[in-house]
Amino acid sequence: MFNYEEKSQEELRPKELFELDKDAFLKLFQEQITLRKNGLSSISGKFPMESFLTVFTERFVVIRPDYQELIAQVENGSITSSKELAEKHTPIFNDEILRCGILL
Fold first, then answer.
1. Which burial class, exposed, middle or buried, applies to 65 when counting CB atoms under 10 A from its CB (0-12, 13-18, 19+)?
2. pTM (2 d.p.)
3. pLDDT tens per residue across span 18-64
4. Is residue 53 part of a domain?
5. Residues 31, 47 contacting (CB under 8 angstroms)
6. How high is the pLDDT of residue 9?
7. 55 and 71 in a common domain
8. Structurally, how many domains does the chain consist of?
């Protein structure tokens, strides 16, 4: 299975970030994406990209059948590498980001 560092819920999903209104959150998320795209992720601000991705997923990603199937594949062990997960997850996640008006 996947090997990752355990983080607390508050580390992954800071309350302050989670409770922002939709427009404020999406604006900050867009800024983070732009900074990373321009190679400036070291000046990313108060919250790491991981937190933005977690909050975005919990608040805005619509659980579609293909996403549910992907989660089931991870849970039953048929996807065993992070590369394979990323290849299948990225198009779904990108669709959701674009649906919210975020530019990649």
1. exposed
2. 0.68
3. 999 999 999 999 999 888 888 776 666 788 888 998 899 889 888 88
4. yes
5. no
6. 62
7. no
8. 2
DSSP letter (8 states) at residue 76: T
User: Which residue segment(s) compose the domain that 89 sits in?
Assistant: 63-104
Q: How far apart are CA 100 and CA 55, in angstroms?
A: 13
d(CA 13, CA 77): 26
Q: Which amino acid is at 50?
A: E
Residue 72 belongs to a domain: yes
Instruction: Write out the two tokens for 77.
Output: 């062990």
1, 14, 58, 66, 101 from 43: Cα distances, Å = 32, 18, 25, 35, 23
**Residue 103 maps to a domain:** yes
The answer to whether position 7 is within a domain reads: no
Residues 45 and 71 in one domain: no
Q: Among residues 13, 31, 34, 15, which one has the least CA distance to residue 23?
A: 31
Same domain, 47 and 24: yes
Show the tokens assigned to 44: 């990313």
The one-letter amino acid code at 80 reads T
Task: Verify that 73 and 50 share a domain, yes or no.
Answer: no
